[in-house]
Amino acid sequence: xxxxDLSAFGQDVWWIxxxxxxxxxxxxxxxxxFNIWWERRVVARMQHRIGPNxxxxxxxxxxxxxxxxxxxxxxxxxxxxxKAVFLLAPVLVVIPAFTTFAVIPFGPExxxxxxxxxxxxxxxxxxxxxxxAIASIGIYGIVLGxxxxxxxxSLLGGLRSSAQMISYEIPMGLALIAVFxxxxxxxxxxxxxxxxxxxxGLILFPSFVIYVLSMVGEVNxxxxxxxxxxxxxxxxxxxxxxxxxxxxxxxxxxxxxxTVSAIATTLFLGGWHAPFWLDSLYAGFxxxxxxxxxxxxxxxxxxxxxxxLRGTLPRLRYDQFMALGWKVLIPVSLAWVVLVAAMRYASxxxxxxxxxxxxxxxxxxxVILLAGFLPLGxxxxxxxxxxxxxxxxTYPVPPMxxxxxxxxxxxxxxxxxxxxxxxxxxxxxx
Length: 430
Hints:
InterPro entries: NADH_UbQ_OxRdtase_su1/FPO, NADH_UbQ_OxRdtase_su1_CS. It is a multi-pass membrane protein. It is a single chain. With 430 residues, this protein is mainly α. It has a domain at 74-370. The protein has 13 helices and two strands, in the order αααββαααααααααα. The protein has helices at residues 14-46, 62-72, 83-99, 127-148, 152-183, 188-194, 200-203, 205-218, 230-233, 243-268, 290-312, 318-349, 354-371, and strands spanning 107-112, 115-119. A hairpin with a 2-residue loop joins β1 (107-112) and β2. α8 runs antiparallel to α10 (243-268) and α8 packs antiparallel against α12.
């Protein structure tokens, strides 16, 4: 990689900085209103319903009407709540969500009101670490919101959410290490520039898949929306919130969806570069304001994926969800990072030809396939049940298993004629 060149940043006049910051704020608020409407319309179509269609053309003003309704609702603070922390928690969720977009590149240098400036508020040599650090602050808002409410349900929801977000930040960070190795930089603009020829989502596909799974768990979206499990926790960490404070939590969730989608676009899908190498047809597709269209098109593609998952997959159990993060994603991420490091070392320090890479890759694939045939973790099909005699003088109870029951349940059998009886241990449905 060439020497890091960030000379284009930090040279703007003060009013250009204010204009770009205001544009980011307005775009994120409008994008949130659109995403809420879009989610309701897409899920309604999946469920053969109409969805919002009254307020505004095609129901586009429905999200604005909902926001006004929330603002006019009665603001309630529980008696047992810690008032200062209770009011601070929604702010700690929303501000980091907005701040993250300060280092996201929306396009190249353009002429903005007569000033040449990059379509990015700022950049720094450790921009991706800045994004990860700022995103972690949002966890404090969720934990403090659940704790300060003085409610057991809110506390459980806050603990669930914090454990979930911390757990899935680990594989998310590990998935980005391979990107840093290939780009040679942690600057977002440099990472986008390194994908001018080939996107990292293609050459680092396992990292891309791990990041996508992690980002769904990070933003508490279905099927990983365990902190808001209605049947268990009523509403999660924001159970006791109402009016504008609840709206801030809602706003933070949808902006976080856009944030992780923008990061995935920047690090894996070439950022603002034209998709499918359209710039080979017309070089102007990567100049001016065209890249803004490509960037938001890729972001909306990820948001559609969020909506699609919500409309198709049921919610996981919490133990399954945590096992996926700690027992699958983290070990796979570590193994992939080691493999990428070895490949980068071999490509830069050793003189290997294409045949050597093919042989090495084939050997790795064979090892993975053989590992799938190992009899690890296979369950026994036997079901052992203690046939203990029923004590006299008490209510009858079903026999208790002597140890953990493994394998499939015993098959049900039903009589096919009037003279047949139902075997012991089975049930007969009327």
